[in-house]
Amino acid sequence: MHRTLVNRFKYGLMGGGAALCALVVPAMGQEAASQPAQQQAEGDDSATADIVVTGSRIARSGFNAPTPVTVVGEERLAQRAITNVGDALNELPSFRPLVTPATQQAAGGNIGARVLDLRGLGATRTLVLLDGKRFVPSTTQGTIDVNLIPSSLVSRTEVVTGGASAAYGSDAVAGVVNFILDRDLTGLKGSVQAGISSRGDYGQQNAQLAWGTKFADDRGHFMIAGEYDKSDGMGDCYTRSWCPREQLIGNTPAGAGGLPASIRGGPAGTGTISSGGLIVANSGPLRGLAFNPDGTTHNYDFGTIYGTNPSPLFTQGGEESVRNGFLDGILLIPPVKRFVTYSQASYEFSDALKVSADLSYARSKGMVIGSVARTTQTIQRNNAYLPDGVAAIMDANAITSFSLGRALMDLGGSVNHSDNQTYRAVLSLEGKISDNWRWDAYYQYGRNEFRQDYTGNVVASRVTNAANAVTVNGQVVCGINADASTANDDPNCAPINLFGSGNISPEAAAYIAPSGYQTTDTTEHVIAANINGALFALPGGDFSIAAGGEYRSDKAVGTADALSTANAFWSFNGKAVNGSIRVAEAYLEALAPVLKDVPFAQTLEFNGAVRRTHYRRSSPGLDTTSVNATTWKLGGVYAPIEEVRFRVTRSRDIRAPNLTELFGPVTLGRTTIVDPLNNGAQIQVNSYSGANQQLSPEKADTWTAGVVLAPKGFLRNFRFSVDYYDIDLKGAISTLGAQVVVDRCAAGQTALCNYVQRDASGALTSVSDVLQNVSQVRNRGIDFEASYRTDAGKLGSLDFRLLATRYLKLEIGGIDRTGQTGYRPGTTTGVPDWIVDGTVLWDLGSVALNLHGKYIPKGVFDTTLVGPQDDGYSPGLPNSVNNNRVASRFYLDLGATVKVNDQFELFGVVNNLLDKDPPLAASAQGGTNQVYFDPIGRYFKVGARIRM
Which pTM value belongs to this model? Predict the structure, then answer.
């Protein structure tokens, strides 16, 4: 994919009338405007005007940009009928759409959020800006839900795909996404559209309206916009035939029957639970008895059991494969509503002073259904609800108790509603000091209010209390309230009948599945000032600098119910986060154009930037800590001739730990450790996990290097670019694992011994496996772009654009996830070897047709597993799998626009025109990896737009 630092998209449009070609406008080194280069030269003077774009604070011509930048114009959103800028960006090969409505399923938090993840490095390492200014965080991880960005006002989005911390500060490790609004909007524009899948689900409705006007002899400007979007979501896994067809089925021991340890197959049944209750026993007269709704029993159909374990988690087929308790009820895509308003007013008092004020409000609401709670309970012979037939078998065989596995499908999963609101106000000042010097300053206030409420959320300890039902004086009560001890009494306990689906009383359901909540209010204050201008002349132009400073305060105040705080619920368990981070920083950037328009040096320039940052972190009840960080960047551009341009950058970038990583909860659990200092003895110890106030910023060293080709003559409308990137992130925030902490301490890494506690005799007592700066991430790849435009006379014009990313390495903590397109439960997804995205536009004037295609090649299911296709495969290996490949997919979309007149147009789009099912790849989301593959199928969108 091609990138540039300075964008000529806007100015190319002024020089010619080719907006429809800008499906994605990376400008190929700022030369990929829609017209030929010679037409640009003949255009408006604005075509060569100096501007400030993402990646630099210095105003200059885009031809001299060293850092790759991709620009997505509003035309792409219009042609693809995309109503959310996040969806448009996630189509680009450089983004990994890890947090979208299609990937959240049973996860709580900011339901329906669209959080951007450049390069697969994680959303916390992608900095999001609005008009060059930070946007108030909308998650406790400090990331931005772009649902809250006013998509209807975004004129273009600039994506810097190289490190930019020296220019913008923390988080810009993978790059920067800068949403740039149309601040000169005049007149009225609006749109309405609706969509639905060919299966009749995933209905969507969207309406947008914006109006702007000038006043006071064009010295003032005002605009206001609003948009409403509603998505009905999808049903659960059983609403798509492909979804339940694959889960990961175990074969224990590995190699049994000549089969590997894991088998991708399905539909999968269950070997330890059923929807009505299953007696779990390896042998004996009770084995395999399952309960009917009336309490009677039948012999359970396990299906095919792989291996020698008679009670495996999953089986092939069987009676529960029709509706598996691990998949039932979990929505493939949750329903989401969002509402965004934005207003802006500006007034130019003189060239020396322009004042602007921005006010915005956004709200996003979503709903997910958690996974069905599953429980295994020990049932005693005296259980009050025990069916007579089972009691007789127990008496005849002197059995006093048994294990019962039950999926509580009759209760359903917990229902979680989230509500996320953002308020933002910005006061900006800017002006000229002289012809060569400009200044700007702003104050920003932002507030995000997040709340999630979940109902019907099962508490495991309460199920255990209620399942122990006994009869006292002819009344069924909970055993804890009838035993000799009063210390364990719970007056609210209501006994539960687990024998057969549909027999749980309302009182028991209310007791075992109460409600919970979490709130987080985040407040941000920002004060910043910048100055830039020319100091002196060099042979290639003016030596220019930019300098500035910024103060930022982020504070989070949260609450959560007691059960969530104690991790007592089956799902969600929101946590309170309380803390603040204050940041003070200053930067200096310089541009040195050494040569220009001389033989063998059409352009030669160098630039550099440095930033010093101070962080002060605090939380109630904890000591205040502070850290400092320095970031820098060096870059250069060399064009021996006008048609060829080389660019390179080298940078040091950082990501500071967020509020959750610093001040989130530290929870206590138990874990088994093999103690190397105690003859390898296995011991159960306390294990602490969670936040760590002592975390330092992550540090990344980044290289980018590329070439842009812009030929003249008969190929003057062809552009091609290739850019290489290499990011080495050290001190990445992660956990080691309690056993690793103990082992490394014993091996002499004394710093880790601070996290290991022993008593006076040397016996291990506890391990603190909190977050630390212990991981390393390596990320390398190559971006390509090719574009071509041709005029076909009366047949209109054709525009072609192809973007691709070749991922060479994504190594996280020593595990290379490159080429992995599966998403095995309990792991992380990787990146494909390639992602290719292409568009073709045929513009006939009043009618325009466009094709969009995306290709993901055959990939690896999990790079930590070994299948028959891999070297070293043996079915006896514990990490063996029967198939370690995921099939390729090509998606084709078709769009059309009909201009009724200059003010009104109709449009329609068919996504996944060929109705391709996703490839099977067992995941926590169901039968595929919805990060990369479409779960919806063929989808139709129609609508209308006005511009007056």
Answer: 0.88
